[in-house]
Amino acid sequence: MTSGSGWVVLKFGGTSVASPRALRRAVAVVARTQREARTAVVVSALAGVTSALEAAATAAAHGKAVGAAVAGRLRRRHRKLLHALAPARARETARVLEPILLAVHARLDAAALGIRLTASEHAHVLATGELLAVHVVAAVLAERGLAASAVDARALLVARGGPLEAEPDPAASRERTQRWLALAPALPVVTGFLAGDDDKGLVLLGRGGSDVSATLLGSALEANRVELWTDTPGVLTADPRLEPAARVHSGLSAMEAARLARLGARVLHPRTLELAHGIPVLV
Ligand code: ADP
Ligand code: ASP
Ligand code: MG
Fold this sequence. Notes:
By secondary structure, the chain is an alpha/beta fold. The chain is built from 9 helices and 10 strands. Adenosine-5'-diphosphate (ADP) binds next to helix 1.
């Protein structure tokens, strides 16, 4: 593609950032892309984290004091990645993670004491994975000499409505993103899954919503293309968990891909392509 602003958006799903091996591969993709284009990275929570947070919120609502254990597990998992791939920045970055871990710990413990989480507090709990992941991924990229900084998507993307599944606003996102560009770091690493409402309060884009974050950001930046990196070699003819013989769909049109997503293929959030506004999306 030659049209567009020159930006390329790379989104890495949970499995692409979960292990040192996967994260190393993601870093190579970013390094390569960043040599030819202005690059923005969108990251999901490490695989399994959002579901674990959802389960923790349910357990807490039933009176179980899970806050310390949940924060402890998240702390260990993220620190392990830091020590493996960003040893020089591990200590400093681990310190940045602490207030995020403390917040989820406190919310879950409050819920366990019978103080019901508001929908907004629940959204904060579920967003914890992305809020942590961006710091780890930015540190790993920085360790490789890239000018990466973690960015909270509330500064760029606008959505409104229920805090757990808010409706993206492409026009307002474009306006907020364009204003943000004046102070954007060279290589932004943006939280997937979450956006800001009119007051930059935290709202979520629904489960699997990091795909939506990527195309919403791509459209706001008028990007040349959006690449969604996941744990399959592309959109397959069937869910590989159910059909091991599934093969890469070649020559899949955007309309067919959108239809697959609407029918429940988890590889793409159903709203992903609709929000791309004509920008090429590669899986
Ligand atoms: P990510 O965190 O990268 O977004 P997801 O788990 O949300 O990953 O989506 C990728 C998963 O979607 C694959 O691991 C696969 O199990 C599932 N999937 C379902 N249908 C398809 C399909 N048609 N093509 C590829 N993957 C599919
Ligand atoms: N982490 C979020 C989820 O598991 C968003 C995403 O992965 O796209 O739903
Ligand atoms: Mg997904």
